[in-house]
Design brief:
195 residues; mainly beta; 1 helix; 52% strand
């Protein structure tokens, strides 16, 4: 097992640790108790990275404090997150071989993506990748997002001078969404490269 230091957290923080070893681990606290955790694929700038994985775990600690956690080897795969890839097929075979539960969808056969837990829920449109609604304390707010693409002229450190006219982008030429859901967190990475 290897040690992990989580520092300067607030209550109910989430720690993320990159590992390059096997996936057969669980997270143990100083008392030897299992901590809620998940193993998820590493995503850097929206791209899957197969050289490492993330171990994400929950920690409760007061500000300016320190706890020690250990990664303990276990039999079988650890607590693997599920991965849903929309309009993205690169890497799905590799993820399945690593033990992840992978679903693939195309834009036409996907449904809205719901992320969150008890306190906060968000819904993303799977066709556009944009936020549709947020729910907090049983109050749901509809959200409309628009993306404007513009070039910059003479912009500098404290000066922003966009070049006009701007163009409202209604559809991405290539939309990729990767949704990762597990015991500790849910997240979606949306790549909207407009041309």
């Amino acid at each position: 097992s290897s040690g992990i230091n989580a520092e300067y957290g607030d209550s109910n923080s989430v720690a993320v640790v990159a590992i390059k070893s096997h996936l057969n681990v669980e997270v143990i606290d100083m008392q030897g108790l299992r901590v809620p955790y998940q193993i998820e694929p590493a995503l850097e700038n929206g791209e899957l990275t197969f050289s490492s994985k993330f171990v994400v775990f929950q920690t409760t600690m007061p500000p300016v404090s320190m706890n020690r956690y250990s990664l303990k080897s276990i039999e079988g795969n650890g607590n693997m997150a599920s991965v849903h890839m929309i309009k993205r097929v690169v890497g799905s075979g590799d993820l399945k071989r690593m033990g992840f539960d992978v679903q693939n969808s195309n834009e036409g056969d996907c449904s809205d993506i719901e992320l969150g837990g008890e306190k906060l829920k968000v819904v993303l449109d799977c066709k556009s990748g944009r936020l549709k609604s947020m729910t907090r304390d049983d109050v749901t707010l509809a959200v409309e997002q628009e993306i404007v693409l513009y070039g910059s002229g003479q912009s500098g450190a404290y000066l922003f001078l966009p070049r006009y006219p701007t163009t409202l982008q209604t559809a991405a030429t290539r939309l990729e969404i990767t949704v990762v859901q597990g015991e500790v967190r849910h997240r979606a990475v949306v790549v909207l490269p407009f041309q």
